């Protein structure tokens, strides 16, 4: 039995005499003419579609995609692709050609100015080129100057001025150096010598604060403002018109707070200076912290008062809040400060993170500079303090 390559697979047919098919010249000429006409028509349509298409690269849609999407749904398909790919830096458009094919074209998204397109980036941190300039959308005019507010789009100053960090799950430490602005030479030395990862806290009673803020922010520092609060056993604090006091009406304390906040811009939050008595009085403290929360700021408690109620109140009013775990320079000697920094590291290794505070003394600045430069080699990430506060927005 013979074989036939043109027979259906698995089927056989009896062998028979084969007849040779003879084609007349007229029939051959007709077939060739029809094929030429069809080919010319297809070529014309393809040329017309090419003229209509944008002058850019075209990528054919995979067969299964083209079959799944009817020709009449091409515009909707293009729109759904843009929604499904928000991170794309290109405009995506699908075009239905005259011959029924779907062609996808890509083109760069239009933008003003130079530089890459950044789409869907986190709203943490500020463009380094603008770091010394406050975001006007996050400020309001007041009798005390410009005060921070939450933007109409919900952007908080805490987020806008935060120092970005890696987001890794390793050990993190924040170091806050306070008292800046009180000594011009000391402030300049601290800003120049301290690594950018260190958070700087400026005293509300300092001088040239806006200038120092601009220098600090351009160098990459996150900054806080230190507000004086009434301590225990210091009657002379009542004579300071800037100190927040337990015996004052809420309106007057708020006025003093706003005066401090208006001294500077570009900060993520406030930190107490002293304040043991006021921090222990929830009736006096609550309206102050509520105002801080409504302005989109954080509050860092320096951790020196065991009677502080700031943590309890912060949870009740949804205020981003943190406690310092350790004061690093209670003993003002470089070797002692380095030892405290090592203690802070061991604490962070147990907890996952830790916050240390210090003042801008020369010994403190030098010890912190040296320790931070070495910590990176041990896998420690130094972050801005905003990265370690407990933020209700994260829940």
Automatic annotation (TrEMBL):
Any single GO BP term: carbohydrate metabolic process
TM region(s), chain numbering: 26-46
Region annotation (Disordered) ranges: 67-141
Residues forming coiled coils: none
UniProt entry tagged with the keyword Transmembrane: yes
UniProtKB keywords: Membrane, Transmembrane, Transmembrane helix
Composition skew (Low complexity), residue ranges: 67-78
Superkingdom, natural source: Bacteria
Species whose genome carries this gene: Pseudorhizobium pelagicum
InterPro entries: Divergent_DAC, Glyco_hydro/deAcase_b/a-brl
Name of the protein: Polysaccharide deacetylase
């Amino acid at each position: 039995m013979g074989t036939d390559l043109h027979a259906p697979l698995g089927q056989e047919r009896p062998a028979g005499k084969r007849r040779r098919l003879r084609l007349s010249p007229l029939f051959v000429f007709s077939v060739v003419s029809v094929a030429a006409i069809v080919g010319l028509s297809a070529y014309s349509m393809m040329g017309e579609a090419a003229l209509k298409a944008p002058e850019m690269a075209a990528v054919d849609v995979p067969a299964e995609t083209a079959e799944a999407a009817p020709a009449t749904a091409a515009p909707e398909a293009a729109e759904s692709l843009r929604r499904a790919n928000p991170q794309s830096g290109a405009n995506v458009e699908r075009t239905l050609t005259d011959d029924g094919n779907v062609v996808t074209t890509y083109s760069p998204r239009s933008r003003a100015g130079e530089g890459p397109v950044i789409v869907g980036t986190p709203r943490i941190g500020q463009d380094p080129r603008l770091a010394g300039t406050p975001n006007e959308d996050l400020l309001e005019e007041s009798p005390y100057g410009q005060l921070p507010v939450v933007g109409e789009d919900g952007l908080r100053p805490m987020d806008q001025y935060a120092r970005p960090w890696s987001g890794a799950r390793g050990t993190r430490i924040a170091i806050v150096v306070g008292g800046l602005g009180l000594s011009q030479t000391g402030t300049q030395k601290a800003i120049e010598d301290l690594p950018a990862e260190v958070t700087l806290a400026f005293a509300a009673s300092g001088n040239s604060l806006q200038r120092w803020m601009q220098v600090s922010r351009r160098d990459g520092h996150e900054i806080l403002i230190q507000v004086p609060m009434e301590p225990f056993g210091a009657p002379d604090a009542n004579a300071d018109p800037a100190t927040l006091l337990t015996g004052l009406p809420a309106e007057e304390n708020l006025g003093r707070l706003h005066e401090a906040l208006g001294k500077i811009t570009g900060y993520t939050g406030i930190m107490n200076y002293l304040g043991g008595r006021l921090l222990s009085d929830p009736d006096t403290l609550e309206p102050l912290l509520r105002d801080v929360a409504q302005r989109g700021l954080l509050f860092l408690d320096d951790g020196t008062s065991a009677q502080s109620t700031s943590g309890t109140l912060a949870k009740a009013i949804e205020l981003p809040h943190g406690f310092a775990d350790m004061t690093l320079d209670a003993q003002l000697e470089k070797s002692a400060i380095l030892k405290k920094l090592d203690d802070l590291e061991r604490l962070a290794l147990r907890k996952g993170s830790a916050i240390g505070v210090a003042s801008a003394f020369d010994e403190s600045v030098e010890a912190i500079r040296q320790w931070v430069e070495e910590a990176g080699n041990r896998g420690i990430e130094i972050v801005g303090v905003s990265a370690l506060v407990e933020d209700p927005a994260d829940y």
